[in-house]
Automatic annotation (TrEMBL):
Transmembrane segments: none annotated. The lineage of its organism: Eukaryota, Metazoa, Chordata, Craniata, Vertebrata. CDD domains: NRIP_C. This is Nuclear receptor interacting protein 3. It comes from the Eukaryota. InterPro entries: NRIP_C, Peptidase_aspartic_DDI1-type, Peptidase_aspartic_dom_sf. GO terms for molecular function: aspartic-type endopeptidase activity. It comes from Rousettus aegyptiacus (Egyptian fruit bat).
Length: 222
């Protein structure tokens, strides 16, 4: 019985040793697998997915931002244009038998008429080449002179005016009275009464007209 008990105890120890060896081997295999596939650990997958998501959001946010910037610039440009239009002084006059809205332009020395307005009024045959070929007129807005009308007849109220005008290359159908003509007529711009007052003794007052886009306004008259 004693010998049998020793055998039983030895068998248990051997079994325990085998189990311990098996556990150690399993741990080693697990560690080896973890080392080989360390990039596939849950926290690494999470970090990678987080980075991919952030990059994707960054790329997608660039287009809307550019779009917002373009819209902002467009709104700013339209606001500046509207402000410029609001500052314009327009008066009604007649030229070539047609009603025209003329711009009172104190920022330019010369009377200007656009090529589009010349076409609309049928004044093409009156256009001559610019007489000062070598001279470059100082004009606002980088306008290009393409010709000249020596005798442009304009009716302001009861006053009939015969004056020269430079023809400029422009798609807008407009006419403007420059500083030379305004001075010769002894004009006073009365901003309180919204009137252009001409003359000293026999004064004539021309009311301002509502400021609108010259192109739209004159197109409606065509």
């Amino acid at each position: 019985m004693f010998y049998s008990g020793l055998l039983t105890e030895g068998g248990r120890k051997e079994t325990d040793m085998r189990e311990a060896a098996s556990l150690r081997q399993q741990r080693r295999m697990k560690q080896a697998v973890q080392f080989i596939h360390k990039d596939s650990q849950p926290h690494n997958i999470l970090q990678r997915r987080l980075m991919e998501t952030n990059l994707s959001k960054l790329r997608s946010s660039r287009v809307p931002w550019a779009s917002k910037t373009n819209k902002l610039n467009q709104a700013k440009s339209e606001g500046l244009k509207k402000s410029e239009d609001d500052d314009m002084i327009l008066i009604s006059c007649q030229c070539a038998g047609k009603d025209v809205k003329a711009l009172v332009d104190t920022g330019c020395q010369y009377n200007l008429i656009s090529s589009a307005c010349v076409d609309r009024l049928g004044l093409k045959e009156h256009v001559r080449s610019h007489r000062h070929e070598g001279e470059k007129l100082s004009l606002p807005r980088h306008l290009k002179v393409v010709g000249q009308i020596e005798h442009l007849v304009i009716t302001l109220g009861s006053l009939r005016l015969d004056c020269p005008a430079a023809v400029v290359e422009d798609n807008e159908k407009n006419l403007s009275l420059g500083l030379q003509t305004l001075r010769s007529l002894k004009c006073i711009i009365n901003l309180d009464k919204h009137r252009l007052i001409m003359g000293k003794t026999d004064k004539e007052e021309i009311p301002f007209v509502e400021t609108v886009s010259l192109n739209e306004d004159n197109t409606s008259e065509a």
